[in-house]
Batch of 4 targets.
Target 1
Amino acid sequence: MLWWSAAPENCCTPNNLTVPWNRLHLTHDCDLSESDIAEVFAPSFLVKANGRTHPADLRVYREFLNGFRSTICVIDYEVEEIIAERRRAVLPMKAQIARVNGSIDRFEAMLLLEFDSRNLVSLWQEVYIQTS
């Protein structure tokens, strides 16, 4: 998962991504509130991952993220490129997750984000494969 800090038309470099937000909130030992999620997500939005579609709101997504992050010690990303136009952005990237059991998962992903008029994520669509 990757979090965005500004409208796609203003995000042209990886430095504009809030990767530190993920590092802080998507680990097993950190607190995560609905207000934390509301910093970047619309009150209701759509998540599509590897062909599965999930309508979500802040409560539902917090429940999902709590399960997702329950085994994560460290999560990191290498954004290879940002292609942004109007209220959409596409990000090819590599991700690495260090788990509490000592294992490491690596992924390659393509992420499409759409933003509402308040620059909050209204669509999170990703396709990813595990590489190790």
Target 2
Amino acid sequence: MSGTRSDEPPWQRLRPDAPIEPNVGLGGLTLRVPITSIEDIALALLERYDGDWGRICEVYPLWEARYLLGPICACADIRSGRIFKLIADTGYTGALFGTIRVGMPLGEALRLEPRLYYDEDEGLLLVRDCPGVALDILARQAPSIQLWEAASLELLADGVIAAIAVFAPEIVGN
């Protein structure tokens, strides 16, 4: 018998230790599927939180609804009803490329993955030649392009990877 048992809570399907796959998915969830694919998880969490929708769902202008599923956030385009972005947040233990994790020091991530670069327009770390992934950073000072190109990483010692998002580039761009 495969899958979860029917007496297990639906959120047991979430796998915060699963690999983070750019342009594909994370945590046992997949991009581009209807939001109804996680309806049972959201409703079970809603019941667990005594009907407090504010702990489960947030709406962002203009077309985004975010479903907060513990260390995983599923973002849906309310026009299409499809998941276009998944975010690994605090408590997510799976890794991007087998090594990059939420909470990891920025300097270590940059040493392990040379394709990482800071996009000033987006305010995120992106991966050269790898669409569908972005890393949110938490640093005391806003980095500049010169800082990211510099060989010295001492200025980033206090910075960390705050979250890792995978997304469907063809949907995010609309």
Target 3
Amino acid sequence: MRTSRRWEPVPRFYATLGAIALAPAALAAWLAPRRRWLALIGLPATAMVGGLVWSLTSAFDRRGRRTIARHLDPAAGIVRELADEEARIRLAAPRFVLLQPADWDGKILIGGSAFRPAHGGPEEVTEVSVTADQGPLPDRHQGLHDLRALTLRTSNEPFQFPEDNLLWELASLEREAHPDRDPPPTGGDQAEVERWFAAMRVAERRRAGQLAGRWRDVGVTVDDVPVTIRLVDGDGAAIARFDLDGQHVRIEAIGVAIDGLALRRVTDVESLLTAMRDRRSQTFVPRRPGR
């Protein structure tokens, strides 16, 4: 588990700067009574604007600056973040052993990335995932019992946790495999939604306990070369892990049998990035307020 600190701007931060500036403003107004209104208004306003400029240019790290930009213009900020992530993946991809199913009749795209925050410098990408599915979520869920999806996550960090820690992920995958079971509440009652989430977490914890000890060795192929992996099958979903060329690979499957799966290395990252961009354009269309 990794933790990081991130500065998020709030209006009271700038209000506090303005309030602090009132003391020297009052002194300046007393020393120069003819310009007291300029001092009383100008100094606090200058402090607040200065705080904003500082936060946009040197606030802790690049993530902090992006956060502020997102607050100022949410739509443009999200678009910028997505573009930044795409650029990070493109730069880091050659260092990862990315895999995809050798035979797939749906969409294959870069699913996303994980990175280690670096204060004052560029973030270090630690994981890149490849997703193979049947299309955007609304289309996939129209056939609730025919959902098929694979996610192959490649990490350059060693797997340092007990295998059973992954069973929480499998319990969550089982829920996605059966979206018609115990669906979330559709009303706007926040308390009801929170109770549903709490019950879901309890159910997933219980299910992870039931799946413990079910790991087994099975075989897959990577570029036609046999590889032994560790696998747990669940109800309509499965999760597996193995090491390849010094990197850790995790497979998350819904409606797809992993045992005997044929995989191959990704040779054209750019086409998968294009597919990711197209998918995001379908699921996220930025709109400015008032348009």
Target 4
Amino acid sequence: DDDDSVDDDDSVSELDDDDSVPTPDDDDSVPTDSSTGANDGVVNFLNQMYCLDWSVTTVVSPYGLVDLLNFVGAPLAGFPLLVEPLTVDPAADDISLVGTAGAFNQGCAQDMTIPTVAFPGDGFSINTYVDRTFHVSTPEFFLDVTTPPLTIFNLELYGTFSEDGTTIVDSYLAGDLRIHEDIDFVCTFPTWNCQPCNFGLDLCETLYVENGVWNKLPDGMHILPVVAVGDDDDSAADDDDSADDDDSTPPPDDDDSTPPPDDDDSTPLLVPDDDDSAGP
């Protein structure tokens, strides 16, 4: 019925305003704004940073990792993991995220010395998105910037965004945890099964963590240059990151013979910092 004044109150009838055709409710008073998260297909989680709550996770492998880290004074909760979804294409069933590690023992504060990593990380990485559930991977993820860095190779992330966009639930992460040479004695533990990894250059133990919950943080992630796999430049900061707050006027490159935007052309910015909302 074109005259909505006849039956705007859908509480009177469960049918459409035109009762001659029993169709679903067409009263737009049902919220569809992304802030409500009440409807399937609403994307209300982009450019939001999430922090993994280690306290509710279950570390399946390596067995005894939590006790070992507590013994050496480096509790697992001291290694915050952060992710932020940037784009999603439900029609193509894919999603893009960035991830990084937080500052050790600083809650969920981002560590500005650790480079941002893209998910998916390359053309061989996993990338699926169906009904708010994602599964992505990246070849290399840095937990710190020591020498050599504490690294997870072939890291997979899986989880489901809650309807209100405040959490990621039913999450797991899996990968190959690099074992530092100075603690390779852990590979003698009967419950550990260290194997060569990273093309035989390192020794790794399988990492598998389930029952993960990620909580949304008030601020977005500061997207740092992504260090490509195999790149010798492990520096975490690019000259262009702190200065380019106004994207309308990109700063010139230090080397005028090389066009902007990235001062270090050997380390490409795989994720452009065009969205100021993604950074603090």
